[in-house]
């Protein structure tokens, strides 16, 4: 999935491409800072997942924007459609307290930006966002993401040019974030700023970078929270976090708010126009869901036990000791990996699985220990977020940063579930790292590449992710790629062919290896439908 970034130039107005760039930059920045934000998360619940939840929310917004661009009949969608998609995606994918509030902030902004995207509109959008977010929270607390949002809006209340407004909003948010440490006792005791507010500063920083083309100043330093002191024990709170999407009318939601407010705390209800995202912390998760059923039609129900104890982890039966989760293109590879004992996640052409899909696969593996093989360099942050969430549920997860399916196959080949977990992970990582990879693809349009200009229909030979060969014939290009890879040595060539690959290609390449490289063995697998024409691995 493309993460297109806007060219480095100061903008006077946000267009659809700039909004797309903002979403991409926000996702990348939250991915980089996710662990640090998780580490300072002590309010409202010290469960260490605020950064992950913000990342997952931003990921949903980004995917919704990319879907709009992919479906656009014109060269690109209009700005109003793009900002609405951003807000709607965040609403559907909102996770946790801060992620739910972030989705409402984006929704509040979208309502204004859909009518204009210059500096004055951005200032009004930030004000509407801060107001809407406070309305969505049952009991607003200062020293949180709400405070940071209000400060950002106040700092640019006078309007101005787009760059001026974006810079003032970011500066105001940074100043307010630094002050949060003294606004909440729990933050002051831990010596940290608010985690949700830190995430919002990151999102506003991505906006500033989009409109100026320059890296924004860093957020105020956030130190990892120390263990609670004996004189300041952690406060007890509700046992469960409950989140669901709800289809319901305004009156029903007003009643729902009252009922959930009586059941628990940290209540946030965001949305409108018949679709809402409900978030609450309660001791009786069933009652919170039942309240939603009475109000309308809840779906995508997620219930998280904050303790994540072993009893909850084994509620569905005895877990296996270890499992492997692998992301693969094509039905054939999915079957191959399943035969090797892996739980698989299928990718579709032009699409990547979201963190939720990877997390669901980790849960389906039903094991105490899980080795995660993303098999795509662009999935690193998404896989890391899913792994972090699974660890919070008591699952031991090791993420091996495989960048191609052939590296995943190499890792699976040496997997031994009876070996100690750390030893197994080291062996699988070594096998994947020793496998160089290549891919053949067909260019969809004229483009500039590292090997020169390609035309639509040209065959591209990518080695380690970079275009190394441009040709017109699939077999000839594949032989050239193989020769380049084997010039550095190798003992085993792995070929993975798709259903629509010419049937004679694999035998032709096997013969080419036999005739030119006597000490090299060749293995061929069939990826089935939905995979690139040819994947190559050299070990």
Please give a structural write-up.
It is a single chain. The protein has 539 residues and is of the alpha/beta class. 48% of the residues lie in helices and 19% in strands. The protein is built from 19 helices and 16 strands. The protein has helices spanning 16-39, 50-71, 79-93, 96-113, 119-136, 145-155, 162-180, 185-190, 195-212, 250-263, 285-295, 310-313, 331-339, 355-365, 380-392, 405-413, 421-433, 474-486, 505-516; strands spanning 240-247, 264-272, 275-282, 297-305, 320-329, 342-347, 367-373, 396-399, 436-442, 447-449, 452-454, 459-463, 466-471, 492-498, 521-528, 534-538. Strands 13-12-9-16-14-15 form a 6-stranded mixed sheet, with helices on both faces. The chain has a 4-stranded antiparallel sheet with strand order 2-3-1-4, sandwiched between helices. It has a 4-stranded parallel sheet with strand order 6-5-7-8, sandwiched between helices. Strand 14 (492-498), helix 19 (505-516) and strand 15 (521-528) form a beta-alpha-beta unit. Helix 2 (50-71) packs antiparallel against helix 15, helix 6 (145-155) packs antiparallel against helix 7 (162-180) and helix 10 runs antiparallel to helix 11 (285-295). The chain is globular. Residues 1-7, 224-234 and 308-317 have low confidence and may be disordered.
């Amino acid at each position: 999935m493309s993460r297109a970034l806007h060219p480095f130039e100061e903008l006077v107005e946000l267009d659809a491409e700039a909004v797309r760039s903002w979403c991409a930059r926000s996702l990348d920045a939250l991915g980089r800072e996710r662990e640090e934000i998780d580490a300072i998360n002590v309010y409202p619940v010290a469960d260490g997942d605020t950064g992950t939840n913000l990342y997952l929310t931003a990921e949903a917004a980004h995917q919704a924007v990319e879907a709009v661009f992919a479906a656009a009949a014109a060269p690109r969608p209009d700005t109003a459609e793009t900002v609405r998609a951003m807000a709607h995606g965040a609403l559907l994918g909102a996770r946790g307290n801060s992620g739910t509030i972030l989705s409402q902030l984006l929704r509040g902004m979208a309502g204004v930006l859909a009518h204009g995207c210059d500096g004055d509109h951005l200032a009004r959008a930030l004000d509407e966002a801060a107001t809407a977010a406070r309305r969505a929270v049952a009991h607003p607390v200062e020293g949180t993401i709400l405070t940071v949002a209000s400060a950002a809006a106040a700092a640019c209340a006078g309007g101005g040019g787009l760059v001026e407004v974006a810079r003032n909003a970011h500066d105001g948010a940074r100043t307010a974030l630094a002050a949060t440490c003294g606004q909440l006792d729990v933050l002051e005791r831990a010596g940290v700023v608010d985690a949700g507010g830190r995430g919002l500063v990151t999102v506003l920083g991505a906006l500033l970078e989009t409109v100026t083309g320059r890296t924004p100043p860093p957020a105020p330093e956030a130190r990892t929270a120390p263990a609670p002191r004996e004189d300041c024990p952690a406060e007890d709170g509700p046992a469960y976090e409950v989140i669901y999407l709800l289809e319901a009318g305004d009156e029903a939601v007003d009643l729902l708010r009252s009922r959930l407010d009586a059941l628990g705390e940290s209540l946030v209800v965001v949305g409108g126009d018949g679709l809402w995202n409900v978030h609450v912390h309660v001791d009786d998760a069933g009652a919170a869901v039942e309240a939603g059923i009475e109000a309308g039609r809840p779906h995508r129900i997620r219930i998280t036990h904050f303790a994540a104890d072993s009893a909850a982890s084994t509620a569905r039966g005895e877990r296996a000791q270890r499992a492997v989760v692998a992301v693969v293109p094509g039905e054939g590879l999915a079957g191959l990996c399943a035969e090797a004992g892996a739980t698989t996640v299928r990718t579709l052409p032009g699409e990547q699985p979201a963190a939720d899909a990877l997390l669901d696969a980790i849960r389906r593996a039903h094991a105490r220990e899980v080795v995660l093989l993303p098999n795509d360099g662009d999935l690193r942050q998404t896989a890391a977020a899913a792994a972090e969430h699974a660890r919070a549920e008591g699952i031991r997860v090791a993420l091996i940063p495989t960048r191609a399916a052939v590296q995943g196959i190499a890792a699976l080949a040496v997997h031994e579930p009876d070996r100690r977990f750390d030893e197994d992970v080291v062996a699988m990582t070594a096998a994947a790292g020793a496998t160089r990879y290549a891919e053949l693809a067909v260019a969809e349009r004229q483009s500039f590449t590292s090997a020169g200009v390609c035309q639509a229909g040209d065959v591209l030979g990518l080695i380690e992710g970079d275009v190394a060969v441009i040709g017109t014939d699939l077999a000839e290009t594949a032989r050239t790629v193989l020769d380049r890879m084997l010039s550095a040595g190798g003992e085993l060539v792995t070929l993975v062919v798709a259903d629509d690959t010419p049937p004679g290609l694999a035998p032709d390449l096997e013969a080419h290896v036999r005739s030119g490289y006597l000490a090299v063995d060749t293995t061929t697998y069939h990826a089935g439908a939905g995979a690139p024409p040819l994947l190559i691995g050299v070990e």
